[in-house]
Every structure is written in C-alpha cells, then in structure tokens.
Amino acid sequence: MSDKEGGNNFLMGFILGALAGVAVGFLYAPKPGKETRALLKEKAGEFKEKAGEVINRVKEIGKG
Predict the structure, then answer these.
(1) What is the rounded distance in angstroms from the CA atom of residue 50 to the CA atom of residue 20?
(2) Which whole number is the average pLDDT over 9-23?
(3) What's the pLDDT score for residue 1?
(4) What is the C-alpha separation between 4 and 23, in angstroms, rounded?
(5) DSSP letters along 32-50, please?
(6) Alpha carbon 56 to chain centroid distance?
(7) Do residues 39 and 31 make contact, with C-beta atoms less than 8 angstroms apart?
(8) Among 25, 22, 28, 31, which residue's Cα sits nearest to residue 50?
(9) What contacts 29, CB < 8 A, 6 or more positions away?
(10) Which helix (H) or strand (E) holds 13?
C-alpha cells in the first residue's frame, strides 16, 4: 500500500469515526427526541459538506 492510500484510508476512517461520535453524543444529549433528530440531521449535513471539502483537498494534494 502506498503512502497516499494509507493517508486516504486514515482520513476516511477519521471522518466516519467523528461522524459516529457526533451522532452518539447527540443521541445521549438531554433534549426531546424530535429536537435531537432535527439537530442531528442539521449537523450531519454540515459535516458532510466539510468532509467533501477535505476529501477534495486530499485529492488535489495527491495529484500534485
């Protein structure tokens, strides 16, 4: 495995782990279920957008 592949695998693992951690944190937060689900959906959307930006940067670095 090349260093680029190892770095990409680490990044994907990090992103998925962070997303899982945020989800668990929101699920255990002392808020009503409907409010928690709405907040979780909003944060997941934000995280997805940021993760896409990071992935694009990694791809650019890999090409360079």
Answers:
(1) 15
(2) 82
(3) 46
(4) 29
(5) -HHHHHHHHHHHHHHHHHH
(6) 14
(7) yes
(8) 22
(9) 36
(10) helix 3-27
